[in-house]
Amino acid sequence: MRLWLSRPIAGFLVRRLLAGAGLLLVVSLLIFTATDVLPGDAAEVLLGQEAATPRLALVRQELGLNEPAPQRYLRWITGVLRGDLGTSLVSQRSVRSIIGARIENTLILALATGLVVFPLILALGILMGTREGSRVDAVFSAGVLVTYAFPMFVTAVLLSLLFGVWLDVLPPVSLVPVGGTALDSPSILVLPVASMALPSVAWGARLTRAAVAEASRAAHVEAARLSGIAESRVIWRHVLPAALPPIAQVCARLVGVLVGGTVIVETVFNYPGLGLALVQAATSRDVPLVLGIGLLLAAVEIGAYIVADLVGVLAVPRLRAPS
Amino acid sequence: MRAWSIGRAQRARAAWVMFGLFGVLVAPTILSGCGAAGGTHRTTVAASCLDRAPEHGGTLVVGIQGSSSTETNNPFIDTTNLSDALRRVLLYDAVTKLTPSGRMVGAAAGSWAYNKGLTEVRFTVRHGERFSDGAAVTPADVAYSLRLYGKIGFGTTAIPIDWPKVRVEGDQVVAPLLKPRTDVAENLAQVSDVVVKAGTTDFTNAPLGSGPFKIDVFEPGSGVALLVRNTFYPQPVYLHAIEIRAFADPAAMTNAFLAGEIDVAINVGAVNARRVEGDKGVKIIRERGALTYPFIMRLPDPPFNNPDVRLALKLAVDRQALVNGALQGQGTVGNDLFMPSDPDYDTSLPQRERDLRRAAELLERAGYTASRPLKLTLWSSTYAPEMADAATLFVAQLDSGLPMVDAKVELAPADTYWSDVWLVKPFSTGWEQIFPLTTAIYRTLGYSGSATDETGMHRTDFDALVDEAVRTTNPALRKQALYAAQRILWADGGYIVWGYEDEIDLSRPDVCGLPTAPGIASYALSQTWLSR
Question: What is the ipTM of this complex?
Fold first, then answer.
């Protein structure tokens, strides 16, 4: 209790949160600018061939696209501060409703994948890192490297074809039940989770291995071993706390991937999440929707890194004092 | 003891760890495979639809390409999202509509008539039409909907109605015409002129329609909709419900179909169609002439202002090779004309064949030689992959077949193609979907004064023939005029229409009554039924 309320920790949190808010503002500006400088706009995408007619000017006016970019951005940001993420230029629905329809699916997929990925990363990382240079380390490292070498879309397509079409033991696509969620039919999550878990575990395990290996080489760990403490206790009491800060950073990065980096899996398995919605919005130049989803994903990733930094500070007492 | 040396106890622990990892990865697979959830199944029963009366009941699960994040409840907006178009056709009646075989019939309008001077068309609203809440469809509803469509719908420029002045007179809706035409009803069947209740302005939720189905469950952006039969619909509807699934990727849609997750997959594309060729458990519905990707030569711009150059390029193309290459063989050879399924398509013209010798002679007559070649840049886009493929193949044909031609392909971004390239560059690749022939002519295919006249042909005789065709109610005179107009287009126009792409749908054998016409007619599932 005293630890959580200590001034260094509270001060650290406040600084990180303020910095995170500022970063979100910068991210929103970057996303807006990046989408705005792309050739074409939502009116051209909507009209298709009719974009060559005088109707283009009318539609641009209706959508507010003929306003200067700074004015459009200011209008959007003031709306966000009131809780209004704006209206999709293409579908004319509120951005909040579009995100709301998909965020539950995204969270379910992310949590299901996380339940598989994080324990495996920890287990494999400890297994390899504490046996650095051994045959076990070599075998698992090779396996992890081969897995990591496979692009996610290859893994996803192969799994879908193998288990969904050829063997027909799992659904090849993730059709969420009408009026329900993915949890109502858990089997539709297996292949998407596997597709995301394999490269994530491979990437995370390698980095965790490195962190554990480096912590294992520390003098205090060697001293603990030499004093006769059991290896398992050495790992849990001495190695892991030292390795925790970099492991927390790895997990924070993976949170961002699991929530926002799912466009390939969502496309192959037709899973209605936020990743594909973001890509479709960008393709349609639907700036409010791009901004809304982008801001949400950025907030999740920034939040994950703040938590990771906090874990690091809690694990390493010398970091608690302000520099 | 070094940390990495492994004794017996440690090997045992390692083995347990590996066993545990294996279990974590494999157990969900095994358990889920054993479970009932997931619904993977394949039908092996080859049911027949022939000689059987339609059966009532059942839920048809339909897959269609769609960007679910752009789904909208506003039926007047054409987002190019096919799942929106499918819902629109099933939930709403329009003034006129297309049957599953592509025939135009009255929907909200029971009949229509043009006045003598062709300055207006009067639609008599059909009695018995009801919205899904039982309220009658009134002339006020139809008039309001037409005015609203004219204001916010797409494709309005192709139909010469003075939209703001549409009015009600008794049980009729009067639509003033900006141009004398007798094919307005046919045009209205192709666009999103749905009928909603008068005064509807809020599209946060889908407005009530008078179509064969109504919404049971639909959350825009979810990619899934469940429609149930509208019990007030006056005509027979056999299915109890239709479940619509939007797919971003046609390959994923085909996988879902092969696994039995969906009953019908609409417009799977040529590559996926080849995956199921020869599979007796799959019914392939091929709708001919759904799309075409012509090469467009703008006549005002050199070198295409020279008729010899235009004809030479038409003779240089290997049409079958383009169909085989760009369309994966899933199409038919074209003859430099459009809308082959239109009843007024000119079938009397001979099929233009590749003739490199004649093409070379024409180009030499135009002053081009191997040392002074005709330099061409053919613009294209990945708006549709077939556009880019066709352009690449054609340029290769020109370079290999005609030494006096030096051609290259330029790909422009899909987002700005229709504003920066189309109608601007002298030589480009087009995209034409199915439309009534006269509408297509007025819109893009050569009528002078159209804002989207693709080739800039500006032939007054051509214009006069088309105007003559749309003013007559005599089918023979109409055909005669349109045949003459098409001969001009074929002989002298700026189009190389090398082929037509088939729209390919996949269906389980026990799904009967599916549409056979391409385009918007392929969504007319009101007469579909399930054979048990």
Answer: 0.86
